[in-house]
Specification:
3 helices, rod-shaped, alpha/beta, Nucleotidyltransferase, domain 5
Amino acid sequence: MHGGSSRQEGEGITNINVVPLIDICLVLLIIFMVTSPMVIQSGILVNSSTVTASHGKSTRNEAVQVKLTKQSIFINNNKVEAEQFPAAIKAALDNNKKKLVMITCDRDVQHGRLVSILDISKMQGAKTLAIMREAKKEK
């Protein structure tokens, strides 16, 4: 016996060495911790509500109202051409203290058109965006 070892010369190591496994797990943990903030994407926060809501943080009179139909765009009940929308929403937002845009659209409006209106509104200075749903029509 050399050095006080209790193991005999011909006997093999029967214990599992978990140190390499722990090393790999810690390296993977560090990699995930470093890369996870890069994976999280920032988006547009949108408040969704109905027109008939009885409570809320803002009223319709305090916001720039955008009505989107299949053929046209209205800002505060004034018809605006699609090419003139960025300038018109910028002018409306300059006169609005809360910088809130409430968008109401018909059901037959394409999703991409609504998203482009949201993007343009945000780029022109809107701080808060709200998508309103049309009230159900009485039959």
